[in-house]
Amino acid sequence: MTASPAGRALRPAARNPAAPAKPVAGGRPRLRVVPPILVRQLRDGFEESVHRGDIVEVAADGRVVRSIGDPNRLVLLRSTAHPFGVVALIEAGGLDAFGLETAEIALMAGSHSGEDLHVRTLQGVFRRATLTQAILACGSDGMPLDPLTSARLARDGEKAGPIRHMCSGQHAVAILLSKLNSWEMTGYWMPGHPAQVAMATAIARAFGITPDKLRPATDACGLPTWAVPLHEVARAFAMLAQPAAIPPDDPRSALAPALSLVRDAMLAHPDMVGGARDRLDTSLMKAAPGRLLSKSGQEGLQGVAILPGPRGNGPRHLASGLAVKIEDGGGDRRACWAATVEALRQVGVLDGAALRALGRYHRPGTRDSDGRVASEAIPGFDLVPVGELVP
Description:
Elements: E1 2-3, E2 9-10, E3 21-23, E4 29-31, E5 37-43, E6 46-59, E7 64-68, E8 74-76, H1 82-91, H2 94-98, H3 102-109, H4 116-128, H5 147-155, H6 168-181, H7 194-206, E9 215-218, E10 224-229, H8 230-241, H9 256-268, H10 270-273, H11 280-287, E11 292-297, E12 301-306, E13 309-310, E14 316-317, E15 320-326, H12 334-346, H13 352-357, H14 359-362, E16 365-367, E17 373-379
Helix pairs in contact: 1-3, 1-6, 1-7, 1-9, 3-6, 3-9, 6-7
């Protein structure tokens, strides 16, 4: 066991015999596994709250390498599905049909902050496709995410439109698919629309299942989202890290060309995936250029593709994927930030200058009115190789 910052031991997750049975596919009950504590919120040394969760690292060949908690827990993909949804547009010929550039692909695969750079980029796509941005049905509540852009719009009396919504890039994927195939634009966001069927099919292939096995839900932007086991999130991001490593006899190997395009676009344009300020996805990719590809989802879900390369002072490693899920949704992002950076440190991808550059994410803090540190979210867990787990 590992000592927590508060001086108490961190204990592994245990089954709670009193926990209510949860329904799963087919109506069978599944006993809930209580996740371990990953992050503790400390205020002047006082443990104010804790955040539980699950983490898993999966190799490109599908082996679970490291885990803590329950790697089989079902999670809703939310925006972590975006890089895989773009595959449907690429395979349909959308790159040539609309002259898409790498920055535009990265924006569609991300969840942007609604900055002017993002707006201009997406407007360029709509102009070339002879489409009006008024088609966007993602809404604009709470947007843009970027606080400086939001303050400027408020100062100028300008109301944010749907194009500033963080998911407008993924909505554009469905709209462009509809344009390309002469499908009706009305209701492009509905689960039964051909564009959504095409995107769901691409996503199901990436997660190794058939579309009929996807468990649907509705995302906050109105698009469908789906539930999958956490380890499959890590597996999908491992494939995104090194598409060429997908075995030829794996049906998912057909996704390799499109996944390579998405990966390279996101790596080349991290600002398009998130934004210039306080976006973990962008900051991770900038701190470790060419080594990490990151995509977050709401409610404390994080997917990270770890490209092949050395880890710490050790030998070169093959690609892998990391998935983090915070039980309570993330505590206003702090828990997911802290757990993700700490997990990447423990697997040997982040150290030295990269870790220092990510300090505000590794131990997110708040300050009082005098600028003094008032609280910090401190990660404390051991993400050990599965072969070293004690039965």
